[in-house]
Specification:
Mean pLDDT: 78
Order of helices and strands: HHHH
Low-confidence stretches: none
Radius of gyration: 23 Å
Number of domains: 2
Largest sheet: none
């Protein structure tokens, strides 16, 4: 029985009385957890046996950075400017314009950076990786096709 079949069986048992949409969401989440646990179980053994491809991991990380860096900057800069304008006008009203830079830095790093990073990595990075994998499988360069 495959991992997906086990997850579907367990979720149908647990969420049998709920709607199909809820069951589908639970199956998707369970499959994600199963994939994560399988990967975490295989990676240490691959590293010990020297079968882990460090070059491919570094190449994929650089590919993700190169695809995501420009969109991240294009989203973060206007967000920082809006934050400076809003906080600046409020700080001038209460007589504390010297705090604008600190508030902008803390607000951008603490609040905006995680959201922007998640959006860009999920959008630009995910679609670029999917396109790369699709191109590999079409041209026979995927490891399973060799």
């Amino acid at each position: 029985m495959t991992a997906v079949a086990r997850v579907e069986k367990a979720t149908n048992k647990m969420f049998g009385s709920l709607g199909a949409s809820t069951r589908g969401s639970a199956v998707s989440f369970g499959s994600l957890v199963s994939l994560t646990l399988d990967a975490l179980g295989v990676i240490p053994g691959s590293i010990v046996r020297r079968r882990f491809s460090w070059a491919e991991a570094i190449d994929q990380a650089w590919f993700l950075v190169s695809v995501s860096l420009l969109p991240t900057l294009l989203i973060a800069l206007p967000f920082g400017l809006v934050l400076v304008l809003e906080v600046g006008s409020l700080a001038n009203q209460i007589g504390a314009p010297s705090f604008v830079g600190a508030v902008d830095a803390v607000g951008t790093v603490r609040e905006a950076a995680p959201i922007i990073t998640a959006i860009v990595l999920a959008g630009a990075g995910g679609s670029a990786i999917a396109a790369d994998l699709g191109a590999r499988s079409d041209h026979g360069r995927h490891p399973r096709h060799q």
